[in-house]
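Weekly modeling sync, notes
Attendees: AB, CL, MP (scribe)

Item 1: holo prediction request
CL wants a bound-state model with coenzyme A before deciding which constructs to order. AB pointed out that an apo prediction alone won't tell us much about the pocket. Agreed to run with the ligand included and paste results into these notes for async review.

Input as submitted:
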Amino acid sequence: MDFLVAVANDYAVGRIGIDRERKAGEGVAVLWSLAVMPNLQRLGIGTALIRAAEDDAGNQGALAAEIGVEAWNNDARRLYERLGYTAFGREEDTETGEPIELLRRSLPSCSVAENN
Ligand SMILES: CC(C)(COP(=O)(O)OP(=O)(O)OC[C@H]1O[C@@H](n2cnc3c(N)ncnc32)[C@H](O)[C@@H]1OP(=O)(O)O)[C@@H](O)C(=O)NCCC(=O)NCCS
């Protein structure tokens, strides 16, 4: 489990977790625990964190990124859909039992040129 942290003026202002293990068999990196400081939201930090996490996951070989969102969280869901995520299923939150909507986005495949 890794976290990326957004830093501004030496302060942590946002974070996103990358779970590479949970759905590795499907080639999926699960992004979770996305949060931006309330007074710094709507400035593009959440978008930058998601894109950085996708780059990181894609470079490590993931074929798709997945994000879960609570049914009530329309702001987050709208953001994910605008970034190319599509709802495909549901699961229950492992701690609260609350229904979570699952969204996925394919990641660009990465090819490495070899210099011989
Ligand atoms: C969801 C969350 C992470 C989004 O973070 P964010 O930094 O606000 O995200 P962004 O700024 O990239 O995008 C959010 C909105 O700001 C807009 N925006 C982005 N940059 C902007 C800018 N420079 N000027 C004006 N608006 C901008 C986006 O278009 C988007 O608009 P929308 O509200 O119509 O969807 C944040 O709201 C948060 O921490 N929420 C609480 C925790 C949470 O719900 N986490 C998600 C769990 S699934």
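Recorded for review: The chain has one domain: 2-106.
Action items: CL to compare against the apo run; MP to circulate these notes.
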